[in-house]
Write a structure and sequence with these properties.
It is a single chain. With 28 residues, this protein is mainly alpha-helical. It contains one helix and no strands. It is rod-shaped, with a radius of gyration of 12 Å.
Amino acid sequence: MLHKYYETASGFFFFMLCLPFQKTTESG
């Protein structure tokens, strides 16, 4: 159970990190 939670948290954290970069790329 803990491993699954860690995987979800890791994926969510990675998504949050990628989000700002995508916006910055779109802005130029």
